[in-house]
Every structure is written in C-alpha cells, then in structure tokens.
C-alpha cells in the first residue's frame, strides 16, 4: 500500500467535511473493493475516510410503498430483514447470494453501487426496481446513476445516504455465479410494478449494468418464461474473458431471464 491518512468520522456531517477538505480522498465502508485495490497499489488516496461504523447510514425502513435502506447497511442484514422479505423478497434473495458469508457480513449496499463493479449484484436491482439513490447533495434516479464500468453519476464531494426501493408487483433475480468468487458472470433481475416491466442485466456488459428492452416489451404483453425464450442479446458489447466468452454470456442472459420470470 501507499501511505495515506486514515480517519474515522463520528457523523455523516463530519465525513462530508473531511471529504471536502482532503486532497484526494477515498471512502471506506465495508472495504470489499477498496482494501484489495489498495493492497495492489491500484489507488493512491491522500486520505481514507472510514464511514463503515456510522449508525446513521445503517438502517432499513418500510414506509408507504417502498423500502429505504441506508448506504452502510450490510448485505447480511438486507438478506435477513423481515420487511425486505415481506415486501421485496427478490431483493432479500439477491443480498443473500452476494459473495460468501464473510463478504455479506462486511460489504455494504452503498459501497456496492458506489464502485459500480460490472459483476456487482445491486446495480441490477436498482435499475430493475426503479430505485432512487439519495446522496448528501441530491436524489439520483437509478437510470441516471450508472454511467459505465466503474463509473457513476456521483460527484467527488457526494456520499450516498440511502437507496429507496419501491415495492414491486412481481420480481425475481437469478444469476450464474463464478464458482470461485461467486460474483455474477451473468445476473438478471426482472420486475413488474408502477414503473412498468424492467429487465436488468449485470455481470455481462462491457459498460456495466444494462436493460434489455426487447425482453421488457415481450413480458409487458405476456409475463411468462416463454416470452423471453427466443430473445437473444447481441454479444457485441458483452464481456469476454477466461470465465466465459461473449457468446456464452449472451446465452446465459436468456437462460437467467427465463429462470427469473419463472421464479417471480
């Protein structure tokens, strides 16, 4: 690691002030992405601001027709929360499939979407469920938030406070996991709600999470696995690596979409 200043603020306001003052800071929540990055010397921050213990960022509330989840909430807590299981079981299921128990007990919702890793699970849930990302500065619609691989609409002086997930009428998530890391080679989240029908794919795109409009249109007419069975996503913009070719991932998208619709 390179040398940096480590600070642990006692409130979100303190964290915001430290973020604005530091030359080149990085926020630390669960550390599932940042710590390996620092170890490999792929980042050289002037300051690491540890917000992982801020209680005001760790909460789950069911209010009206939505679930509000604090950015510092661990995956394990989302997976086991009674309100999430009741109103949005697909989201609870997704959280329970992230990584392994160690990752789920340390990783946070905010950390996951702040990094926008192409293999992360939460971006698919945010897009498919028409989520709202609340920062210390503003509210960002999920469709406007994810900009590309490891790129978001977050400004350097913003901290994610919470994410609002509206209750779906139908929803499910299925993913094909890397056998070693258990991260998504392909994950598909399908939903139906006041926002219409959405199909969001993670793990496969060169530019991160994306929607499949052809599947959305087909499911809007007939919510059935058969509706998406013949829809093939072009492999042109899909990832290809030692774990699976672009063509293989294209095939998996259709398979995971069928399974998700069947499970909803």
Can you describe what's shown?
By secondary structure, the protein is of the alpha+beta class. Among the domains are: 56 residues, 2-Layer Sandwich (Uridine Diphospho-n-acetylenolpyruvylglucosamine Reductase, domain 2); 94 residues, 2-Layer Sandwich (Enolase-like, domain 1). The strands form 4 sheets. The chain has a 5-stranded antiparallel sheet with strand order 4-5-10-6-7.
Summarize the structure.
The protein has 264 residues and is an alpha+beta fold. The chain has helices spanning 12-21, 34-39, 75-80, 82-87, 89-96, 101-106, 109-115, 122-128, 142-145, 213-221, 225-228, 246-263; strands spanning 5-7, 25-28, 47-50, 60-63, 66-70, 132-135, 139-141, 146-148, 151-152, 160-166, 170-177, 184-193, 196-202, 210-211. Among the domains are: 1-56, 2-Layer Sandwich (Uridine Diphospho-n-acetylenolpyruvylglucosamine Reductase, domain 2); 170-263, 2-Layer Sandwich (Enolase-like, domain 1), CATH 3.30.390.
């Amino acid at each position: 690691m390179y040398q940096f200043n480590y600070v642990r603020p006692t409130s979100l306001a303190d964290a915001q002030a430290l973020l604005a003052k530091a030359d080149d800071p990085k926020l630390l929540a669960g550390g599932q992405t940042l710590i390996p990055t620092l170890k490999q010397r792929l980042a050289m921050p002037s300051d690491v601001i540890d917000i992982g213990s801020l209680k005001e960022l760790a909460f789950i509330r069911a209010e009206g027709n939505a679930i509000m989840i604090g950015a510092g909430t661990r995956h394990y807590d989302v997976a086991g929360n009674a309100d999430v299981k009741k109103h949005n079981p697909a989201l609870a299921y997704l959280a329970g499939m992230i990584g392994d128990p160690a990752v789920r007990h340390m990783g946070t919702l905010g950390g996951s979407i702040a990094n926008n890793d192409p293999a992360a699970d939460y971006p698919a849930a945010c897009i498919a469920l028409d989520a709202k990302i609340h920062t210390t500065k503003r509210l960002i619609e999920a469709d406007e938030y994810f900009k590309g691989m490891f790129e978001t609409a977050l400004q350097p002086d913003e901290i994610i406070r919470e994410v609002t997930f509206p209750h779906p009428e139908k929803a499910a998530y299925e993913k094909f996991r890397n056998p070693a890391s258990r991260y998504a080679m392909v994950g598909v989240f399908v939903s139906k709600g006041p926002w219409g029908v959405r199909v969001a794919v993670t793990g496969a795109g060169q530019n991160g999470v994306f929607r499949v409009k052809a599947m959305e249109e087909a499911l809007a007419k007939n919510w059935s696995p058969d509706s998406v069975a013949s829809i093939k996503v072009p492999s042109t913009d899909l990832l290809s690596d030692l774990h699976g070719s672009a063509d293989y991932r294209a095939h998996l998208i259709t398979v995971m979409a069928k399974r998700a619709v069947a499970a909803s």
